[in-house]
Design a protein that fits this description.
about 325 residues, alpha/beta, Rossmann fold, 8-stranded mixed sheet, 4-stranded antiparallel sheet, binds adenosine-5'-triphosphate, binds iron/sulfur cluster, binds magnesium ion
Length: about 325
Amino acid sequence: MANKTDLISVNKLKVNFRNNTEIARAVDGVSYTVRREETVCLVGESGCGKTVSALSILGLIDSPPGEIVSGEILFAGKNLLKLGEQELQRIRGNHISMVFQEPLTSLNPVFTIGDQITEAIRIHKVIAPDELYERCIQLLKDVGITAPQERFNDYPHQLSGGQRQRVMIAMALACDPELMIADEPTTALDVTVQAQILQLLKSLQRSRSMSVLYITHDLGVVANIADRVYVMYAGIIVEQAYTYQLFHHPRHPYTQGLLASLPNLSKRGQRLYSIPGTVPNPAHKPPGCPFHPRCPFAIDNCRIQCPEMCNYGNEHLARCPVLYEKNPDI
Ligand SMILES: Nc1ncnc2c1ncn2[C@@H]1O[C@H](COP(=O)(O)OP(=O)(O)OP(=O)(O)O)[C@@H](O)[C@H]1O
Ligand code: SF4
Ligand SMILES: [Mg+2]
């Protein structure tokens, strides 16, 4: 596949959270890119640093207790980590938007859907009232809300979970973003509605030539939506690849474990595999490769040195020299 240009590039980002006694290295040197018009997934188990790495892009890390220790986030040639709050607000308003997991907590219960979407539009541009209404209705149509004129006057609690998430997506589209960050936007929804929202995001990404950074713990979702994937474990990227490559030739033991624990028809009736052990606490990460306590291939050196990425070609990299030496396959 031909390379598109990078829209955003996160380089060696480190984010700590500090409490009285401990430092949690939540994001521990993460690098990833999202190119123009592509959908990239960040996938990994709960607590591995997906949300923190996305919130850093928007300057939304609570500080304290959070602290961006090092790294850079390049967007349109600017390092977002060096911008002041006003400039960041401009980027958030006009170029990058975010959709969160639980729309009920993000929508204001005392304002109508129409009020909230028109407000999202007005923040970004000066616009005449009748044009504002038309634009709002158009956005509701774009996200597949039926009878938008009627929904306009509804309050959030009058809508279903799926409709609320569509409204959140409409608000995120209000500024015509170049990048939409979607953080587990379908986790709270049932499977059918989840599939509809994924379909919606895919078609919006294409029709608006947007880029999407999609955060999930669910490899099924990844298979459905991603062009490229970054697998995170304990605050670092352990594997990155084009989606097809990741699913057919996973190179990191963690990715292999995640894939083996996916339910599928051929495993019907068998007990599902699950990776033994638990994810490390970011304040007490094991030395060396953070996956070593759970890894079936670990050797002595894995307990000492955190491995570098090994390059399998075609932008497929995995942080496991042990498997690389067994089968570099390039
Ligand atoms: N506000 C905070 N205060 C203290 N620690 C935090 C805070 N936010 C995140 N952390 C720490 O950062 C780590 C990474 O959190 P993050 O929310 O990025 O995980 P995640 O991969 O998005 O998980 P999930 O799938 O559950 O959403 C957590 O394990 C937690 O220890
Ligand atoms: S580096 Fe060692 S512990 Fe880490 S994934 Fe590879 S084999 Fe397992
Ligand atoms: Mg999260």
